[in-house]
Write a structure and sequence with these properties.
Layout (H helix, E strand, L loop, with lengths): L1 H20 L12 H24 L7 H23 L4 H19 L12 H35 L5 H5 L3 H31 L6 H25 L5 H8 L1
Helix pairs in contact: 1-2, 1-4, 2-3, 3-4, 3-5, 4-5, 5-7, 5-9, 7-8, 7-9
């Protein structure tokens, strides 16, 4: 049942991307709201799959590579669905849907078995994982907005005003979305790092795996902090900000 729900969600995300890309094809049969409806359906099924996992395993889907990838994919899909609903723009699904598909495919490939020992930190671990996954999902949104920005920028520079120009949002909107995702994603990831320190501090002898995990997290946090600081100071915007975010 758990695998079947993930497969259904995987198909739903695939259809979301296909319907979002339909205006780029000669046969334009996709309704304006159809990608949003399909995306919402896929996110709902994905959420049901995560609930089924939590019920069967007795732990939240945060520990173990497979469940963690699935949870991250769910958050990316949820944010993409929310952006479509708020902006009435479907283009975000062109990047977000393939990202979720990759995450879900990897989750199914490595298996959805839990690692209960990783949740020995209790509430500390749960809060750390939730904040970290949300921060990463917001940074994935920044990546998606940046990719769309660079494609739209290239279309405008080449004076091509075809299907891509009509489908993609204006550059200003994509830049604002990138800025908002970075300005919210980096503090959220920072909170995840701080909570990780508390989680590892619960053990008298932190494992090498835990310290290595934290080390990579701090390194990623530092690199992303440079980009976020440059955006906040106004030194990085537009095309340069899109390249930096990617």
């Amino acid at each position: 049942m758990l695998t079947e729900l993930h497969v259904i969600a995987l198909v739903g995300y695939g259809l979301t991307g296909a319907f979002a890309a339909a205006p780029l094809l000669p046969l334009r049969t996709s309704g304006t709201r159809l990608p949003l409806v399909v995306c919402a359906s896929a996110v709902t099924v994905h959420f049901a799959a995560l609930l089924t996992y939590a019920w069967a395993a007795g732990v939240l889907p945060f520990s173990g590579l497979g469940p963690a990838l699935s949870s991250l994919g769910f958050l990316v899909g949820l944010l993409a669905c929310a952006i479509q609903w708020l902006t009435r723009e479907r283009a975000i699904a062109l990047v977000a849907a393939p990202l979720v598909i990759v995450l879900l495919t990897a989750a199914l490939a490595v298996g959805l078995g839990p690692e209960p020992a990783a949740q020995a930190g209790g509430a500390w671990f749960v809060l750390h994982a939730a904040a970290s996954f949300l921060g990463l999902a917001l940074l994935a949104v920044a990546f998606a907005a940046s990719a769309l920005y660079l494609v739209q920028y290239r279309e405008l520079k080449a004076r091509r005003f075809g299907a891509i120009f009509q489908l993609f949002p204006p550059l200003e909107q994509l830049d604002r979305l990138n800025h908002l995702a970075l300005m919210t994603g980096f503090p959220t990831l920072t909170l995840g790092i701080v909570l990780a320190l508390g989680y590892l501090g619960l053990g008298s002898q932190p494992s090498r795996l835990g310290l290595g995990h934290l080390g990579w997290g701090v390194l990623s946090w530092a690199v992303l902090g440079i980009v976020a600081a440059a955006r906040m100071s106004g030194r990085l915007h537009g095309r340069r900000a899109a390249i930096g975010s990617i």
